[in-house]
Amino acid sequence: MNGSSSTVNQGVVARDANGGVWILHRGRINVDNERGILHDFADDAAALQVDPVKVIFEGGRREACLPVAPLEKPLETVRATKRFVDLCRLVRIRAVDGEEIADVQRKAFGFEEPSGNYTIPARDPIGAERQHHDVCEALNTELSARNFDHTNEKIGRMGPDLYTTGTSTPILFELKTGNSADDLLKAVGQLVVYEKLIGRKCRRIMVLPAGVRGANRELITSLDIEIVDYHRDAKAITFAWPKDFFPH
After folding, report:
1. Which of 48, 63, 127, 170 has the fewest Cβ atoms surrounding its Cβ within 10 A?
2. CB of 26 closer than 8 Å to CB of 1
């Protein structure tokens, strides 16, 4: 990124390689009346996806700065700003309340949603994709190719996206096209409820777009729920199946 800033102010305005405008922070903050440096809390920053970037200033000086938010995408501005504020909160909690409380809070921050109002400016019409349908069809095709008997038949008025049949332990799939806190919490609840409706112990699998935060992945898997990532490009949808998922 190319930026401009004095050597005193912590705020930085910079453009990325694509010309996007960002607000960044140089990392020095006051915590409980003492000087703190956000760069010293690399694990917290990584957990909250606030990764430092190199900024090139006028004259060629380089410095690592922490991204606060892009300015041209309203929803991402809200989300990114929340991540940076959470990092600052977490550093303060470590200083004031101690490591144990801070570690618990770090896990919770990953599931919180940004709040407040924001305005999305008018824009030209754009095409919409039926992503859930497309991914579900790709999953259906892959299971059929692997000779897995399965169905998406609803259970009463409720229904999992797909589940296997004809086995002692059904495999229950819940598919989401996002990996936000709302997506993850809904999927957990749906898998638990659907398993109860099926009436047997199931192998529960959450199918999500690649990019689930590490701490969230760890928490989900601790609930005995597996995650299968999928990747979508212009040509195909592919799934990152766990090793030995399909019998040889």
Report:
1. 127
2. no
Angle between helices 214-222 and 181-198 (to 10 degrees): 20
**Domain boundaries for CATH 3.40.1350.10 within the chain:** 131-240
Burial of 140-172, coded b for 16+ CB within 10 Å and e otherwise, reads bebbeeeebebeeeeeeeeebbbbbeeeeebbb
Q: Is the pTM of this model over 0.70?
A: no
How far apart CA 120 and CA 68 sit, in angstroms, is: 19
Question: What CATH class has 131-240?
Answer: alpha beta
- For residue 122, how many other CB atoms are within 10 A of its CB? 4
Q: How far is CA 144 from the centre of its chain?
A: 29
- And the tokens for 31? 């915590």
Residue with tokens 């929340």: 82
Q: How many H helices and E strands in the chain? A: 6, 13
- Per-residue pLDDT tens digits for 119-156: 656 666 655 456 888 999 999 999 999 888 888 877 66
Q: For 168, which DSSP code?
A: S
